UniProtKB/TrEMBL annotation:
It comes from the Bacteria. GO terms for cellular component: cytosol. Pfam families: Helicase_C (PF00271), ResIII (PF04851). This is Superfamily II DNA or RNA helicase. It comes from Geodermatophilus siccatus.
Length: 601
């Protein structure tokens, strides 16, 4: 009787929540193989936590292990893991520090971070070998964040009874940063310079990708709404440069145009925030998500604070501002996840593992562009709760982000490229280095202004501009129900119809933004002049701006038709019709380019 009571005490009371098909299949495979190491790659939002804790519960119940240790990236995730474990009857201590020796009595393990393990690897090794232990390495790519972390994780858990590695994002590391407990095989690798080589590629024991999760309605379908615009800045030589986000020819010009667009003083940011707010309003009022929320990702804390002020001006409501150095950051995330606030502005606090199921809209206002961070961030808005829900991501129409969006459905493993394939600029290899803000002077880069306009919707790797059909929903057009189903039930609207609808709503936002962002102290609205006659076009900046918009829309149509990048079409256009970039071209040049593009359709 006593032994039965003790067995019942150590056997966790599992939740009655049914497992998803992929979780059940992965568990069956694990139990058949009973491996020491097992790597699961599952798309963000698929339910890796539930899978891992269910496996841990079974191992505890069968007495194959007596302790569970979870290693995760951040302190906030420690609490999240502990709460999830508690719901399954597993008591994990989320507050155990390196200053405390043994695992506390009354618990079945603890949750720690990679940084803590790196601080005292031998302490964690002693805890993991005192009794039979299963170690769950959440987002295991963090064990490749520098050699010291990888070595510490290997030292701490090299002799643990079982190790379960979890990841859900594509990532790359430097050639000498092999992740512990991950199986690698030699494979052909194509570097960013187009040259090939033999690198090492990870091999997961079980893989569940975004495409499979989408088919199973485990994750929401994502609509990528790309916004272009003309940016103007002063370079280090004191020259004023203008370029379109989607037209910039070189990487350096593209990055400067992107940086200028993200500047809080311009009009790109408030315009996209207004579009984001419009989407949230529709989801709450018509889309069956009364608690729908949005996330804005900023590059640094200064930008985040500035964006929060813009959100308040544009929407009339203060957002939740979540900063990494704020001691109340975890509480703010929890409050936002369970509350009713519409928008949260953050830097990196809501990028990986944080669960905010009601978040369905994301505004990408950061210069980060690694596949790892992109998948993590988009993963915050794809977690499905109901079959009819969809996610919308607003992003700059720049090549690095459009490429990542187009490859969302690709299956990608961890790649360790050969040394010669390493990106010379470190854009994709480094795990998000901290950004240092330099003082801006006249001798350095200075953002001047930027505007915004809808470019296209990205669907299955193809850009749809919506120019090919009317967007009014009248005269028998099959978009008659668009006002009721603004990006509503997935599959209701075709990608072209979705693009057409977004383009029309984008135009409707312009006057509203101009009115809201105008100086609040004056209480005056900007003067809206009549559009000049065609005869005055040569003297009208308004007509030039409209021509630029038309040229960009036509370029997008040609790019979609020919499956070529926008930048390639822009380059060919400038060769056919010589002159400066469209951002600084004359009305005559813009008209000639417009006519040239029309002949290409």
């Amino acid at each position: 009787m006593a032994s039965a009571a003790r067995a019942e005490a150590v056997a966790p009371q599992r939740t009655s929540r049914p497992l998803r098909a992929w979780q059940q299949a992965a568990l069956e495979q694990y139990e058949q193989e009973s491996p020491k190491d097992f790597l699961v790659t599952a798309t963000p939002g698929a339910g890796k936590t539930t899978f891992a804790l269910t496996l841990a519960a079974r191992l505890l119940q069968r007495r194959e292990v007596a302790r569970v240790i979870v290693v995760c990236p951040t302190d906030h995730l420690r609490l999240q893991w502990a709460e999830a474990a508690d719901r399954m009857g597993i008591v994990l201590d989320p507050n155990l520090t390196n200053a405390v020796g043994p695992v506390r009595a009354g618990t079945q393990g603890y949750v720690t971070t990679y940084a803590q393990v790196a601080g005292k690897p031998m302490l964690h090794a002693a805890r993991a070998t005192a009794v039979k232990t299963v170690v769950i390495l959440d987002e295991v790519h963090h064990a490749g964040d520098g050699l010291s972390w990888g070595e510490a994780v290997e030292e701490a858990y090299g002799f643990a009874a079982r190790r379960l590695c979890l990841t859900g994002t594509p990532f790359r590391t430097k050639p000498d940063e092999r992740i512990p407990f991950v199986r690698y095989e030699e494979d052909g690798f194509e570097g960013d310079d187009g040259e090939g080589g033999m690198g090492l590629v990870s091999r997961a024991d079980y893989t569940y990708g975004y495409k499979e999760a989408l088919a199973d309605s485990v994750v929401r379908p994502v609509v990528f709404a790309a916004y272009t615009g003309t940016s103007r800045w002063r370079n280090s030589a004191g020259e004023v440069v203008a370029a379109s986000l989607s037209e910039a020819g070189t990487r350096s010009v593209e990055m400067q145009a992107w940086r200028t667009a993200l500047d809080p003083k311009g009009q790109w940011v408030p315009h996209v925030i207004a579009a984001m707010d419009d989407r949230i309003t529709h989801l709450r009022e018509e889309g069956g998500m009364p608690d729908a929320a949005g996330l804005i990702l900023a590059s640094d804390q200064d930008d985040a604070r500035a964006y929060a002020k813009i959100v308040r001006r544009v929407t009339g409501k203060a957002p939740e501002l979540i900063l990494s150095d704020d001691p109340k950051a975890s509480k703010k995330i929890e409050r936002f996840a369970t509350g009713s606030a519409r928008i949260a502005v953050c830097v990196r606090m809501i990028s990986e593992g944080v669960d905010v199921p009601r978040a369905a809209v994301l505004a990408w206002m950061t210069s980060y562009r690694t596949p790892l961070f992109f998948a993590q961030a988009v993963g915050r808005v794809v977690r499905a709760r109901a079959a009819h829900e969809s996610a919308t991501v607003f992003l700059p129409a720049v090549r690095p982000l459009l490429s990542l969006a187009a490859s969302m459905e690709e299956q990608r493993n961890h790649v360790m490229p050969p040394p010669k394939a390493q990106d010379p600029e470190g854009l994709d290899l480094e795990p998000l280095p901290a950004k240092e803000r330099e003082p801006v002077t006249m001798k350095q880069f200075e953002a001047l202004e930027a505007d915004a306009r809808f470019a296209h919707v990205l669907h299955s790797g193809t850009a749809h501009t919506g120019e090919g059909r009317p967007a009014t929903g009248r005269a028998g057009d099959d978009m008659a129900a668009e006002e009721e189903d603004f990006l509503g039930i997935p599959g209701l609207l075709t990608p072209e119809q979705t693009a057409s609808l977004l383009a029309r709503r984008d135009e409707e936002l312009r006057l509203r933004i101009a009115q809201r962002v105008h100086d609040d102290d004056t209480g005056e609205l900007p003067i809206v002049e009549d559009h000049p006659d065609e005869d005055d076009a040569g003297r009208s900046w308004r007509d030039a701006a409209e021509l630029r918009r038309e040229v960009n829309r036509l370029v997008a149509r040609v790019a979609a038709k020919t499956s070529r990048p926008h930048g390639v079409v822009h380059t060919e256009l400038r060769k056919a019709v010589p002159g400066p970039p469209s951002a600084s071209a004359s009305v005559e040049v813009l008209r000639a380019r417009r006519e040239r593009l029309r002949t290409m359709l």
